Amino acid sequence: MTLATIAGQEVHVDDEGFMTEYDEWSEDLASTLAGNIGIELTDDHWQAIRFLRDDYKVEGVTPTLRRVTNTGGIPTKQLFVLFPKKPAKKMAYIAGLPKPAGCV
Amino acid sequence: MRQLLVLGAGTAGTMVVNKLRSQLDADEWSIIVVDPDPAHHYQPGYLFIPFGTYQPGQVTKPKAKFIPKGVDLVTAEVDRVEPSENRVFLSDGSAIGYDFLVIATGTTPRPEETPGMLGEEWQRSVFDFYTLDGSTALADKLRSWEGGRLVVHISEMPIKCPVAPLEFAFLADSHFKEREMRDRVEITYVTPLDAAFTKPIAAAHLGGMLEERKITVETDFYIESVDNEKKEIVSFDERAIPFDLLVTVPVNMGADFIGRSGLGNDLNYVPVDHETMLSRDWDNIFAVGDAADLPTSKAGSVAHFAIEIFTENFLQHVDGQEMTHAFDGHANCFVESGGGKGMLIDFNYETQPLPGRYPIPGLGPFKLLEETELNHLGKLMFKWVYWNALLPGRDLPLPALMSMAGKEEVEA
Ligand SMILES: Cc1cc2nc3c(=O)[nH]c(=O)nc-3n(C[C@H](O)[C@H](O)[C@H](O)COP(=O)(O)OP(=O)(O)OC[C@H]3O[C@@H](n4cnc5c(N)ncnc54)[C@H](O)[C@@H]3O)c2cc1C
């Protein structure tokens, strides 16, 4: 775990740059994080990010793509348009959540 | 009398009833285990059926043989659990009550989850090997197949035995070389992960092994559908991969009754405490084996290590004591690499697979993350160990928790 400065703010991140402290995140940070990976946030992006934040708060784990689609109501196809190539990882990165486990 | 009810008599459920029957006083505890399938399947054997190494008849035995005296085996399907009433309904409508419930109903492939997978080409040019039926049909297909584009594919993670599709690709390479037709087969390995495997050091090793065998890898591929007409798999980001023979691992999901009973996550896995396997919602329900949402591989070896810890904890828990044992996610998998060789990986929640020796530091005899003939023999021996030591719940000379002794630290 290391400290990084994002948008002028010190935050904890893992070795791949995923934030590790839920409460250090803010909407401003999200825009900067998105910019880091070449994404400009629109309302559609925000709908996904907010679902991730809310779901994590209740469940304690980063939701899978399947869950964002089934429970969050956003079609998988659209997630690939909004967050190209690696939507699960990119959404978690922007939402300031741990890298999705999914794969073990 | 207190009642322990176990759902599922597969690898995990069978180990649980064997371990607990000898530990729980017969005058105080009755044990029931419910499973609709009278046959116990040695699922690791499915991998070898397509290549004719095992025959379909060699991987099943009657379940009853492995259930100890003093345990009631009920051949029926669970329809739902009513956790607030401490009872389970079977599909014939009858109910069984419990004081403690252990869910061990595993996970199964669901080709119907992917549009087109069960289309016209199913079991013509689209196959799976995660069921006895699938691997048997694939054996027939391979016998007469003359070559072309073979696509080995994973639909979605997690799947049980996540190394099995890699092993399938390695064995296919070796099989076609033996039949002197490797030059007529193009092999592509398609995965939703961003590398050949999940953990970086093992992924690098396994990626190298694919490259050596001229197996092309397509990563970050999240399947949307199977196009039966064009014979292509299509991803959500509109990549299409053509095949003449598709060997896929369909989406894996836990039993439907788990979802129906409100006990599961999106894939019907039961959320449990990762150290004790106690349900996060119910103090008298545990989930073990593939049915639980543990963030480690879904494998028989994992179930074995986990159940050693579970047994100790269960005895404390039912006595009203605090559970003092913690599972670490220990996994230990032989990976067949073809040509009579195999590899061994050993890891847990925290530590990824590293090179070294297992189980005795410095001596082995098994080498971690290296292809050897002895590792292959280890894999074949596993079948004997499974039927004769693992299921009956005998103690194996392997520690349940992972050890760093014998492992080498490496830079990723
Ligand atoms: C191709 C392949 C290769 C593999 N190779 C390896 C390997 O090399 N090493 C390794 O360690 N593991 C391997 N595995 C994984 C291993 O087989 C599983 O992880 C292990 O069997 C899990 O045990 P389980 O008891 O959780 O589930 P299972 O053994 O699958 O048992 C689940 C049981 O629940 C029953 N059940 C299902 N639904 C219901 C219901 N509604 N009511 C009542 N009962 C129900 C089923 O009939 C079944 O008997 C492999 C798996 C496959 C498919």
Strand content of chain A: 5-15%
Helix content of chain A: 40-55%
Rounded to an integer in angstroms, the radius of gyration calculated over CA atoms of chain B is 21 Å
CATH fold annotation of the largest domain in chain B: FAD/NAD(P)-binding domain
Q: Taking Cα atoms only, what radius of gyration of chain A do you get, to the nearest Å? A: 13 Å
The CATH architecture of the largest domain in chain B can be named as 3-Layer(bba) Sandwich
- Order of helical and strand elements of chain A: EEHHHHH
Describe the structure.
The complex is a heterodimer of chains A (104) and B (412). Chain A has 104 residues and is mostly helical. Chain A has a domain of 70 residues: Arc Repressor Mutant, subunit A (Orthogonal Bundle). Chain A is 47% helix and 10% strand. Chain A has five helices and two strands; from the N terminus they run ββααααα. The radius of gyration of chain A is 13 Å and the shape is globular. The model of chain A has no long low-confidence stretch (mean pLDDT 92). Chain B contains seven helices and 24 strands. The N and C termini of chain B lie far apart (54 Å). The radius of gyration of chain B is 21 Å and the shape is globular. The model of chain B has no long low-confidence stretch (mean pLDDT 95). Chain B is α/β, with parallel strands linked by helices and 412 residues long. In chain B, helix 1 packs parallel to helix 6. Chain B folds into three domains: 174 residues, 3-Layer(bba) Sandwich (FAD/NAD(P)-binding domain); 128 residues, FAD/NAD(P)-binding domain; 59 residues, no CATH class. At the A-B interface, helix 3 and helix 4 of A face loops of B. The structure holds flavin-adenine dinucleotide (FAD). The site of flavin-adenine dinucleotide (FAD) has 37 residues of chain B, from helix 1, helix 6 and strand 21.
